[in-house]
């Protein structure tokens, strides 16, 4: 089971071990969800448990559709990792910053994808923990800087990283380790495009190339061979638009998260401001990052659940992002036997999300705008076309990746929109807080 070369190995005992290990490690996620529920502000003193924000949050976290299918059907260990993330967030919401920093340092060394939200942690801890006081206008009071607090944070980070990387450094394997952590030769997009801005960029390039050939503005033989829709993980060249390099995606990502990070430096709004910055960092990295995996959208959806039960504005964003992001995971389960399972599970979670948030915030009509409703209804049309109509059509053999293309492109609109709407809500909050 542990031989790297034994790729096709399987046995009943191995499957049992894998399933039980996922279930066992989910205990950490359950505990983290409990801690997050303790941090929720109960706005209504209702005897009905269904109207309590803490109960709604518990269901949104523990019954999260995306996490359920990715871990327990697609089979991965994301629940264990998200347990560390949510527990770290909860510790910051409880003003236990050193514990929160320790948990995030451990998480980052467990899986480096959480670098997405590292800028939010770094700036928040420096600004709101290492600087102990603010001026009357909310700006930083430089004289309140605490070197001891900075040293404490540094010891935590360095100690965790030393335990994690120390053996590789001792054996001279650090270069090999870094090459595997950051495999830039895998190409801009994963084999199945994540629903982000590069999915839109790719389909625009394909459309321009097709249009150019039909209008005889381009010679088909001169265009690069189109491998980006071939289901392979590799580098490729765009046909018409400029090809995108890792450095370009890095610059785009930094520009996308910079306003959010700057906001918690210049106008800190406590732990809720940190959480909003974390969401924008997660989505900014997802939207503009290099070789993003589709499941990374859960890094934003799960923490957003906390804000969704407290704020009507955030609840609307959550409904759009969760519906879009969760549907974008559908192609991970591609067999006919899994179709009714994933449809029923998502319907149950979506119906609960809409109804529960509707009760909490007095009407889902106030949560969603008309165009958002139209867009979400369009998901139903895309689902029927990709899951029912296409498998019965003659295009199934000629264009096997068309459903993946349609799903990624349509969902990328909703994810990018949610990212922009989160930024708009941040700017409105800043304007409201200004003296």
Fold blueprint:
Layout (H helix, E strand, L loop, with lengths): L11 H28 L13 H10 L2 H8 L5 H16 L3 H14 L7 H13 L16 H24 L3 H8 L15 H18 L31 H21 L3 H19 L9 H11 L3 H16 L11 H22 L9 H20 L5 H4 L3 H32 L2
Walkthrough of the structure:
By secondary structure, this protein is mostly helical. The protein has one domain (50-166, 176-188, 243-433). Helix content is 65%, strand content 0%. It contains 17 helices and no strands. Helix 4 (78-93) runs antiparallel to helix 5 (97-110), helix 5 packs antiparallel against helix 6 and helix 13 (312-327) packs antiparallel against helix 14. It is globular and about 65 Å long. The relative contact order is 0.11. Residues 229-233 have low confidence and may be disordered.
List keywords for this structure.
435 residues, 0% strand, globular, mainly alpha, 65% helix
Helices and strands, in order, run as: HHHHHHHHHHHHHHHHH
Distance between the termini: 62 Å
Radius of gyration: 23 Å
How many structural domains in the coordinates? Answer: 1
Low-confidence stretches: 229-233
Which structural class do the helices and strands define? mainly alpha
Mean pLDDT: 90
- Counted by DSSP, the helix tally is 17
Which bin fits the share of residues in helices?
Answer: 55-70%
**What is the multimeric organization of the chains shown?**
single chain
Profile the largest sheet: none
General form:
globular
How many strand segments? 0
The amount of beta strand, in percent, is under 5%
